[in-house]
Amino acid sequence: MIVRARKVTAAALTSFLLAVAPAVGVATVVPTQLPTATAQPDASVGDVESTSAVPDTPMTQAGNPFLTLSIETVAPSTVTTSSDPFVTVRATVTNTGDRRVDDVSVRMQASAAIDTTADLRTSLTLDQERFDRVGDFVTVAESLEKDESRQFDLSMQLRSTTEPSLGIEAPGVYPLLLNVNGTPEYGGTARLDDARFLLPVVGLPRNPGEMDPAAPDALPLPPNTRNPVAMTVLWPLADIPRLAAGLPGSVDERVRLIDDELAGELASGGRLDTLLKAVEFATQPGLDPGGNLASSLCIGIDPDLLVTVSNMTRGYLVVDDPADPASTARDGTGSAAATQWLSRLEAIASSTCVTAMPFAQTDLGAVADIGDASLIQSAISTPADVVDGILGITSTRGFTWSPTGGVDADTADALRAAGTGTVLVADNSISPPTSAPMAQLLSTNVPPTGTQPPSTLAAAHYDAATAAALAGMGATPSTPALTPAEQRYDLDTDSRTARLQDALGAINFHALVGTDRPGRTVTVAPPQYWTAGGDEPSAILSTVSSLLRSGLATPRPLAELIAEPTSGTPVTSVDAATELDTGTIGLVRSQSDRIETLMQSLVDDPQSALTPRLFTAPLREDMLRALSTAGRASSMADKTGTMAFTRLAATRIGIDTIYGSVTVLAPGGVYTLASEQSPLLLVARNDLPMPVNVLLRVDAPPEMTISDVGVTQLPARGSRTITVPAEVDATRNLSVDFSVTALDGSRLGEVSTVSVRSNAYGQALAIITACAGALLLLLAGRRLWHRFRGQPDPADEGYERP
After folding, report:
1. Pseudo-torsion of CA 653, 654, 658, 661, nearest 10°?
2. What integer best gives the mean pLDDT of the chain?
């Protein structure tokens, strides 16, 4: 990540002198090589082709800056013809060093208007010498002790011929900088920090410095509205996955969440509340009478968020241990907030464009690598059904918004197979670059053979630099994965207000620059997990609405964009390298296979509302949640990575528990067979809430032959006795292992070992039985012979009748 020059240590000699001075207790005079603050720009200002590589912001021995600037307000945030002819910045300077700083003074500087989208980012990393339009230094504090702060206001005219000004002579987007100088104790005067932001100038107000009010330079200068830009805005509603993992679907059980943070997000003032409220406010008839903003806007909804909120309305639990699906839990507090938020969303969705995001903002590249057709369908195709079913609307179909900003060849093929006709990607992911609103997306994979032509996939694109500026908004700023290295810098060095200004500048840029190019279009897409909050979402929509009202932009509905025919050179798209290791991918693949196996063995019960797909859907969705991209590109990366690992572990535990719920009960004692062909009676138990078909697996010694009993259906939460035909040809105690399996042979439950005692004597028993039968016949024949001849049988001697 690039760190701006203002945050880098000063020359070695300067750092050494500033560090050792307190130790010797003598005030040190800093040599002349130390950069000193002056009211005039350096001589190198005119060199606009290079930036200074010399670090010029000294640090303390601990590596901290002596002073830190934080911008709090910018007025006006966007300059118009009716604005004041000057800009006022309210900021706070804080002593974050280890000693007192004297003579704290600040001045405002500006640079030329930016003219490329890349400049929306790179202009904020330029050396301060490139900000060559400078004002006078104003002392804001005689001294600041350690940890002491001072708030101040600083104003500067937009344009003037008689005094220092920002030199703004035409509409555009201008980089501004606040430069703070000071004299640390034991040191010399130096530039100690600066703060940068973008100032959008839609129109110039009257110039009060002109003596002749009717002079051309004195009149307000409106923007050029002859060639407005066609604008489409995606508005995301999404969150990081909150549902506890490893729990199958049910009809009446309350869902379990890993925490209760979503309750605050949905409540008044929460992030999701403000995102939705901004749309409600900006699209009301009084503010958008022609419906221009409403028609240019399309709400992107994460179906995982919608499923979670919908379940919260019926009451929910919050688990104490997210790694254990069956851990103790407490009642959640957000049911009322979820009900109200969902009702508001239903109302706004009924009259506004809605599109479904990939489920849980999952990494589509990882899903494509896994190659599970059911998982792909759940990630891409099913979300629209989920959104439509909960909100009672018809969302935009055949459109996929890439969570990472790009798609590789495998992902493109997966999207085609799932029925996607258009994919939205970042413009910097496309090669070759194209200005066409819709381009044909090629696959580098081998095309299918046969007469059936492959389905086409079109690529629409949004401006990546604008997306990066929008991603920097909010409490948890992020940098999109595809942002080039030269456009990256430490967002924590900027205040939240400064990052909002950068976003406003990016939105206005497309309407103000390039007005001579025909057919101008732009798609604005924030990150899907967007942490903008407070007044920030309203500020963005208000800016778009102002551009539409002023004629600088025209609405381009998403449906109109999708209907555009592909044009220009076919393109390919690259995706950001996945942060998931092969072990994670392999685990998701194996667990997904187990879920599919389970679903194939479950039986649809017409008497129950719970179907095999509904029962297994949360388990499959857990796989997608574990692959979520939400928060991955921000300071939350470590947290979200840990959450994904915990989710996978909990899912594995949950699936193991489900598999263990169908088993053969271990019989007590020993089976004694009355003959060599006596059957065995086994009891199989099913603790699942729906019937399941199983096969019996037997591991018997060679002396025993077990007949296959075929498929056995076990009732929901019940048991069944299985009669197992068995034949034994030996007389001894035998040990036989029994278990039940899914229809594909995957074992369910535990193995039960049965001890069998057989009374089978084999060939000897047959001989003895035959001999006994022959003897019986002989004796019976002898008696009949004597009786036929009228002779008493000798065996009857002593038993004569009286």
Report:
1. 60
2. 85
Handedness of CA 8, 12, 14, 19 (dihedral sign): positive
500 and 491 in contact (C-beta within 8 Å)? no
Q: Assign 129 to helix, strand or coil.
A: helix
Tens digits of per-residue pLDDT, 49-98? 333 323 457 777 667 889 999 999 999 999 999 999 999 999 999 999 88
Reference 127, options 106, 111, 142, 147; nearest CA is 111
Between β-strands 712-714 and 692-699, what pairing exists: parallel, antiparallel or unpaired?
Answer: antiparallel
Question: What is residue 96's DSSP assignment?
Answer: -
- 3-class DSSP state for residue 271? helix
pLDDT-based confidence at residue 19 (cuts at 50, 70, 90): very low
Q: Which of 4-18, 97-111, 396-410, 681-695 has the lowest mean pLDDT?
A: 4-18
Residue pair 500/539 in contact by the 8 Å Cβ criterion: yes
**Inter-residue contact 430 to 572 (CB < 8 Å):** yes
Q: Which two tokens stand for residue 181?
A: 């100088």
Which conformational region is residue 450 in: left (phi greater than 0), alpha (psi within -120 to 50 degrees), or beta?
left
**Residue 144 to residue 103: CA distance in whole angstroms:** 9
Terminus-to-terminus CA distance in the chain, angstroms? 124
- Spatial neighbors of 314 by CB under 8 A, at least 6 apart, are 254, 335
C-alpha torsion 705→707→711→713, nearest 10: -90
Strands 86-95 and 149-157: antiparallel
Per-residue tokens: 117: 């989208």
C-alpha to C-alpha distance for 520 and 509, rounded to whole angstroms: 12
Does an H or E element contain 775, and which?
helix 762-788
3-state secondary structure of 447: coil
445's enclosing H/E stretch is none
Among the listed residues 462, 534, 533, 547, the one whose alpha carbon sits nearest the alpha carbon of residue 504: 547
The torsion angle over the Cα atoms of residues 272, 277, 283 and 286, rounded to 10 degrees, is: 180
Beta strands in 170-258 (DSSP E): 172-184, 190-201, 229-237, 255-257
Here the tokens at position 731 are 């007389």
- Those residues with Cβ within 8 angstroms of residue 319's Cβ, 6 or more apart along the chain or in another chain: 244, 256, 257, 258, 325, 327, 328, 329
Q: What is the pLDDT of residue 93?
A: 96
Residue 28 near residue 184, CB atoms below 8 Å: no
Report the C-alpha dihedral over residues 776, 780, 782, 788, rounded to 10 degrees: -170
**Token reading at 137:** 């230094």
HEC profile for 519-578? CCEEEECCCCCCCCCCCHHHHHHHHHHHHHHHCCEEECCHHHHHCCCCCCCCEEECCCCC
Total-model pTM: 0.84
pLDDT above 60: residue 3: no
Reduce the secondary structure of 605-657 to three states and give it as a string: CCCCCCCHHHHHHHHHHHHHHHCECCCCCECCHHHHHHHHHHHHHHHHHHHHH
Where helices occur in 25-129 by DSSP H, the ranges are 119-122
Reported as a pLDDT band with limits 50, 70 and 90, residue 524 is very high
Helices (H) and strands (E) in the chain, counts: 19, 32
Q: Where does residue 448 rank: exposed (0-12), middle (13-18), buried (19+ CB within 10 A)?
A: exposed
Rg of the chain over all Cα atoms, to the nearest angstrom: 39
Class of residue 449 by CB neighbours under 10 A (exposed 0-12, middle 13-18, buried 19+): exposed
How far is it, in rounded angstroms, from Cα 603 to Cα 741? 15
Given a contact cutoff of 8 angstroms between Cβ atoms, the answer to whether 378 and 627 are in contact is no
Residue 220, Cα to own-chain centre: how many angstroms? Answer: 46
Buried-exposed string 122-138: b where 16+ CB fall within 10 A, e elsewhere: bbbbbbbbbbbbbbebe
